[in-house]
Amino acid sequence: MKPNAIVYTSNTGYTRQYAQLLAKKTGLPVYSLEEAGKKLPRGNAVIYLGWLMAGKVQGYAKAARRYQVAAVCGVGMGPTGSQMEDLRKANALSDAMPVFTLQGGFDLARLKGVYKLMMTVMGKTVGKALADKADRTPEEDAMLDMMRNGGSRVSEENLTAVVSWYQNAM
User: Fold this and answer.
1) Secondary structure tally for the chain: helices H, strands E
2) Do residues 138 and 84 share a domain?
């Protein structure tokens, strides 16, 4: 099914940035999940983007109840294209569902409440473990840098696989 809109849920803005970049690349309209509920009829085919928390694509279940999700993009701290099988399992996505992961960013100041507390703890525990690791991979070095210094990794280049899939979708 060829999607006719992009729907997203964003917590700190990185997923929204990807949704807007994808809209420019595809020409599809883009809506937050909240906006889509008011403007996009149920049953429409959509590309869904959501931020990741513990492997779960936030807002996906609600979007799947309302729309025909043609592809799922999870935006998190990991490198683009990583952890797709984990994401598939955590969200009970079939093997037929196109799944993509996109590296977003990290900014503790943009987080609120329990999410800020969780990421502060994670930064201390995972960050220390990574810092103490003698033989870090380049991906681990990038993760450590993001945890220590924050920053955005959002880029059009990270959307290459999604755009390619869209262009070839039936």
Assistant:
1) 7, 8
2) no
